[in-house]
Amino acid sequence: MSDRSGPGTAPRPEDTARALLPLVGGAANVTSVANCISRLRLGLADRSRVRDADVRALPGVLGVVEDDTYQVVVGPQAVNAVAAAFGRLVEEKGGGETGQAGQTDTAEELAERGAAIRAANKRRNATPFKLFLRRIANIFVPLIPALIACGIIAGVTGLLRNLGWMEGALPALTAISSGFMSLITVFVGMNAAKEFGGTPVLGGAVAAIIPFAGVADVQVFGTALSPGQGGVLGALGAAVLCAYVERRVRRHMPGTLDVLLTPTIAVLVAGLATVFGLMLAAGALSEAIGAGADWLLGTAGAFAGLVLGGLFLPLVMLGLHQALIPIHTTLIDLEGYTTLLPILSMAGAGQVGAALAVYRRLRHDAGIRATVRSALPAGLLGVGEPLIYGVTLPLGRPFITACAGGAVGGAFVGLMGQLWATTGSTAIGPSGWALFPLVQGSAGIGPAVAVYGGGLVVGYIAGFVLTALFGFPKGAVQAAEAVEEAVAPGSTPG
């Protein structure tokens, strides 16, 4: 049975932080503290000082993920408070605690060991594909809050327009919701240039060519360009090229001329390449992505939904889902919504159903049931990590049946898109119930909401039934319950 903490109140964030610090090598071993939606992300000088087994067993910790940082999964409800408390402890203790008795390394020795370990970890994780995904995430993830905000406002605006309400306010709401999307290429360009070692504002400058209305006066191979042609993919290519040219020019430019000529040459070269090549190529690629998505969901919607919904949880675990961000953004730019996100969201529905089945079947495992209760609200809102690392993945089979439940839900959404109405999201980021304000589709908001809601219900049911039937080894639950009952107070051993 699980060794998770039993029923009762969750540990206080301060207690979790205080218990965690010595397990990761003490304050002297911590080089940075940050957090995302559910993980505490720690930069460590010496990875060998971490006591992994003790970290994983710590009450309040749902799992550990290793990447370029050491990531401790504590869940969305606790992560901000734990990160703040942990950061305060590191500042208070400074470099005086090593976390292991008898070690008195100097700062220089610790820095040397940390540098060597970081270099080894970097070599191990620096495959071209992992680096590509990390860079894609660094470029697009910072844009997600604005995409969510503008997407929700756009959805509300569309609903008001359909109902004929507040017509005087609609132009203002439209401007608020559309302004960011009209200039998203500039933000992509700035982030891309920064990520590839260039000056952010120069990347934004060449990316700004794409939405500029004046490109309609430019003839390329006898055809006029269209403002926005190439979209975020064109902006990405333009900014990366600009950063490359800037770095190369700066190496050979005398210092007295660098401030004048380097940015000028970089913008000119990358700008000409954007106007006379990248906009055409990226525009063709964007149109191919849109046509491919329409064809896939229009002709093989159920099968496509089955595959996408079933594979998304493993993609999230491996970090491969970041590669889909440019595709989502391109579809939103082309069609106003991405049809892939509602299908992928069904993976979370399958996991919620699987967790409910685990809760029902393991009724004598107080630790697992407490974890399900605490993680389920986040799962319903589309934050799946607490359920992944706290419930389904540690149990093994329930993770597989959760993926199968997501596949069934994805197949339902895909089939409805094929037979009735496609369903999409006007922004990326949320899923689960949190996606409802962003839902849009080919037949309007009403059918889209109905299809998406129906998919969630199907995913919940499929995940629950498949886990109840196939999520546990035959006889294992009954044997575990018999042991629990045999040692329970008041029972009579036989």
Identify the notable features of this structure and list them briefly.
single chain; 494 residues; alpha+beta; Gyrase A, domain 2; four-stranded antiparallel sheet; two-stranded antiparallel sheet; 19 helices; 8 strands; 65% helix; globular; disordered N terminus; disordered C terminus; kinase; membrane; phosphotransferase system; PTS_Sugar-Specific_Components; transmembrane
Q: Could you explain how this protein is built, in words?
A:
By secondary structure, the protein is an alpha+beta fold. The protein folds into three domains: 13-126, Gyrase A, domain 2; 183-289; 301-484, no CATH class. It is built from 19 helices and eight strands. It has helices at residues 13-23, 52-57, 79-93, 107-125, 128-140, 144-163, 170-182, 184-195, 200-207, 231-252, 255-299, 301-318, 325-335, 340-361, 366-380, 385-395, 397-419, 445-470, 476-487, and strands at 30-35, 39-44, 63-66, 70-73, 219-220, 223-224, 423-425, 439-441. The strands form three sheets. A four-stranded antiparallel β-sheet has the order 1-2-4-3, sandwiched between helices. A two-stranded antiparallel sheet has the order 5-6. Strands 7-8 form a two-stranded antiparallel ribbon. Strand 5 (219-220) and strand 6 form a beta hairpin. Helix 15 (366-380) packs across helix 16 and helix 16 (385-395) packs across helix 17. It is globular. The protein starts with 12 loop residues before the first helix and ends in a 7-residue tail after the last helix. Residues 1-8, 95-107 and 486-494 have low confidence and may be disordered.
